[in-house]
Fold this protein.
Amino acid sequence: MSNYDVDLFVIGAGSGGVRAARVAAGYGVKVAMAESQFYGGTCVNIGCVPKKLMTYVAGYESAMRDASGYGWSVGERSLDWGKFIKRKDEEIARLNGIYEKMLNNSGVEIHWGAASIIDPHTVRVNSKDITAERILIATGGKVSVPNIEGAREHGITSDDIFYLKEQPKRLVVAGVGYIGLEFAGIFNQLGSKVDVIYRRDKILNEGFDGDVREFLNGEMIKKGINFHPKTNITKVEKALGVYQVHLDNGEIIEADQVLFATGRVPNIDGLGLEKLGVELGKSGAIIVDKCEQTNIPSIYAVGDVTNRVALTPVALAEGHALVDRLYNGQDRYISYDNIPSAVFSNPNVSQVGLTEEQACSQYPNEIDIYKSEFRAMKMILSDSQERTFMKLIVHSKTDKVLGLHMVGEGAGEIVQGFATAIIAGATKADFDLTIGIHPTSAEEFVTMRNKA
Ligand code: NDP
């Protein structure tokens, strides 16, 4: 008999927390959970899901425009923004309901409210103390806005952009990571004027291949997005209902909204971790070992709140592996190599494995590069000048494909499948043996024959 109220207390009903709670409860473990905001966390409510719906609403505009090249007469068209937001909210509410039902059906006891950890085995929610043999922190991340005059007062973040009452006709975006580039693409497709401000000379970060960063930038410029490299915002003001964004080169850009997509940091607010002595890293990230365990043995953490990879599927995998180990006798751990990811910019970017820069530094003089750039068949009859880019990084000694990168329509869908091949250790010879599916863009990955 346990001396605790529950076996496992999970803090946070986001992707990682819900997966862990649900699976653990399925193993017969007594699980309680605290959540203060919404079922499904960032991904379902203010992240991946509504963002993807936004890429779809924006994609229809491009599709209708391009259809004329195929002979379609597409007349006057307009977007009912309010209707889209309402439909999106309905879908999120449906997903919230599914999460709630899943948790209830698996017998997880839900406590609505902000949780704090009082001691290594006690969680307090709404002044009630619940003891637990183990505590899992899965509180995710939160937006980070730089300390710029007027940024917090007048700017919005990805927490707000899904609830705008109107489509901003002029949008300034600060930051060129996943979020900045995704929303730049969405609002550009919807016809808004988009200005992107960033302090580096290249978009995306070093986790992305240099060619990919350059190619995507070129494509987004072709679509009419205004990029302002090596530029900082110094001040955001509001005058006569319009935001004025002051840049350090003296320029002032007028906008209807200013989006700060300047990164996310772990959300450890109010948990009481410093007092407990939980070891924290940069920006408050909870430091965990390969067992998702903190320096306090009864306290675990998964997902964006940790010092690892901030992606929904990683949080899901971590939460699942943790409870499989703890409660189902499985000896399995997450590999952080070859995690595929996509940026849903326009065009999409997706990658798995090493960039050319990483490969060359790990295996100097042992890297072969294969590249292909083309105008996809679908674009030919339309007026779209969009081009697609693909790249393979191959280890010349072993012939193993170390990295696979794509910029173009459906990149995420295509790279997902190839990621399995890369994880299975596919060689360039295996790629060459694979018959292409014709006519597709994806077949290009198995028909690249000339080293760059
Ligand atoms: P990123 O870390 O990807 O990018 C942040 C951007 O903001 C960078 O351009 C960065 O510039 C800039 N920035 C940071 N601090 C400042 C500052 N003080 N002043 C000016 N610019 C600044 O963060 P995002 O917010 O785009 O996304 C957060 C995380 O969410 C991602 O890392 C990813 O893990 C996840 N995510 C994943 C998605 C997906 O899988 N499709 C979609 C959306 C989010 P610099 O490089 O110079 O620091």
